[in-house]
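SUBJECT: A protein chain and its fold
Encoding: whole-number codes for local backbone shapes
RECORD BEGINS BELOW THIS LINE
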Amino acid sequence: MSDVISKKSDEGVLTLTLNRPTKMNALTREMYGALATGLNEAAGDFSIRAVIITSEGDHFTAGNDIKDFMENPPTNDDSEVAKFLGSILNFPKPLLAAVKGNAVGVGTTMLLHCDVVLASPTANFSMPFTSLGLVPEAGSSYLFPALVGYQRAARIFLTGESFSATDAKEMGLVTTIATDVLEQAQLVASQIAAQPPQAVINTKALLKASKHDAVEAVMKAEFQLFSMALQSEEAMMAFMNFMSKKGK
């Protein structure tokens, strides 16, 4: 069974499901590659009207698989991570996320690119980049303060602290909290899929137009700093510390 399951409904809604529940859906290079391929193919498939990203098990994702990350650091533009970030930035159709349990690192930053995010009451968000000797990615250093205000964003980034589904809804990161979060996401996606498709694509393009180029530029700068940080002694020590805590 694949670590990312792709399933299309009769209504033209594609669901991409992170399927590595025993590892809290920690993302490997292969999973990033599968997500990028799924989004890029959906962008070019007229029969697909909307995409939902969701997960198997109790959690959305624990973020990057640290072991895979340390062995294969994504330091160039043709890495699977870079391809995924490019695909989510430029995805022209409505993108939804159904989040439950932990959404760590990229599990939270990818949501800033989604058009509609729904969360379970169990959802818990965190972006502990500084805790790992890294910097924010996926345009989050631009998009998150724009959404929640500078001080709140600074506190969350600089401390690595987590926040709840209720906090996320109040911040505007999440639109709805629902017990059966995937069912609710499917309902919203089917409402979108029933709209005239070109009008939907044009509306999303207009909504994203004012920030797209700025976000793209920030993502490039973040990626360079992230790549440098990944190879630093500070990050290596932080990763080792993280792995030793995990092993206890």
